[in-house]
Amino acid sequence: MFINRYHYKSFFKRILEDNLWVVRFLFNWLLNGGKTKTVLFYPEFPNKRMVLSKILKENNINMTNNPKLKHSLVIDWQNETERARFDWPKITTQPTINSKIDTIGKYAIDEIHQQVFGYCVNLNPKEYQGKMVLKSDANAMHDGKVIDGPITEVNKQYVYQLVIDNTAENNQVLDYRVPVVGDEIPFVYLKFRSRETRFSNINSSAKMVEVKTVLSPDEQEKITWFCKLLKVDYAELDVLRDNDSKLIYIVDVNPTPWGPPNHLEKHKVKESKQKLFDAFLNQFFNRQ
What we know:
Elements: H1 11-31, E1 38-43, H2 51-58, E2 62-64, E3 73-77, E4 96-97, H3 106-117, E5 130-136, E6 145-149, E7 158-161, E8 167-168, E9 172-181, E10 188-194, E11 205-209, H4 217-229, E12 234-241, E13 248-254, H5 266-283
Parallel strand pairs: 1-2, 1-3, 3-4
Antiparallel strand pairs: 5-6, 5-7, 8-9, 9-10, 9-12, 10-11, 12-13
């Protein structure tokens, strides 16, 4: 009945979204001289607040999660930690992005981190003496808290990690948010938060900087290698640098990111979206 499958429960909201989709499709078709590009997101339709949704819409590229509609590129779009696998040749003949990811759970991330960097962030909570971070193995929960180790009972739904000293000036912490598009890291976001809300997703300020100002060539190479081993074609990584050791730690991988980050200056929001779109053109669209 509907052109796309939306996450809205309201029948009338889904009808409205389908009507708006037809209007946008016709507008893009006319704007591009009777031609249009469509990206298939499968199986889920992306939320409007997700960065890729914003980028494609602003560049007059249609989005659908209906594989019967003509499309030129496919993105495996699942807001889950453990991802379903599909028989893609039965769904599409077009190139697929992120279609080989099995999991983005923190245990899996840490195993690959050890393989690539030679060290990891997860701890054995039954043996570790001192402060450690407890947080969900599931992605994007923002439920971290600091506890004392060792402990006697381990919950496998959670991971137990080093407390990384990423403190910055003015009682803040600094996280790197690193977009990876194919083989390219177009820039890095710097996200500042108060120490009291370090595990939340609410920034006190944010900046966009050139990659080379915060990551060495070796670190950049290892980040792209890490993504290849995790089978990630596109994602944004949460990376922390420890003030004492100067080592970086990849602590989260999000292949369906929202953004750009809150509290980023308006002109930098525009610039970041353009750089991400340029990277997508270079890495995916122009390679077809």
